[in-house]
Amino acid sequence: NKNNIYDKHKLIHTLISLGKYEDAELRLNKLIKKKSITGEQLGLTFFYMASVKYEKNDLSSALSYGLKAHRLLKDKPELNYLIYLVCLRLNKIEEAKNFILISINTNKRILDKNNSFNSENILDQVDLYLRAINLYINLNNVSEAYKMIEELSEFLSNKMDKKIIFSIFEDLLIKYSLS
Question: Is the pLDDT score of 165 beyond 60?
Fold first, then answer.
């Protein structure tokens, strides 16, 4: 049954990435109605539902499902990031700040544990830091923004040499100029 749920989650994830939100939502509702899934599997189901609701711009439902998922999935940076995005759109800036910080710390723990420092992982982490810095600046909290900048600098200097840092920021600039 666990493999069956895994396959269903995989299909739902694919549907979401293809923008087939109605199909994904239908399958998620069936999973939620089944009382047989619990724990992490249920948390993942709620996370996917929050993603669908976010994409459909149903922000209050997205937040509700996101928080349900959060109670079951603490160490999922993508979930914390999604809740951050929802809170930001709902103009709940303090909550958004809390979830971006949780996302940064969770992601950092996972990166440290896995020792997986490829440029994509580091770019993701840099992006999280930049979002947090921007949020602090928007909240007129310059001292916290500087703390985040220091933390970002420390994170980068511990992980790589200057040439790699330069290429990452070069990639980041290209990524932002294209978006």
Answer: yes
Q: Within 13 Å of residue 23, how many CA atoms lie on the same side as its CB? A: 12
Q: Which among 139, 141, 131, 122 has a CA at the least distance from the CA of 101? A: 131
Nearest to 119 by CA among 60, 168, 67: 168
Residue 34 region, left (φ>0) first, then alpha (ψ -120 to 50), else beta?
beta
Whole-angstrom distance, CA of residue 159 vs CA of residue 5: 37
pLDDT in tens, 30-60: 999 987 788 899 999 999 999 999 999 999 9
DSSP conformation class of 18: T
Q: Are 72 and 39 in contact (CB under 8 A)?
A: yes
Contact 118, 164 (CB under 8 A): no
pTM metric for this prediction: 0.81
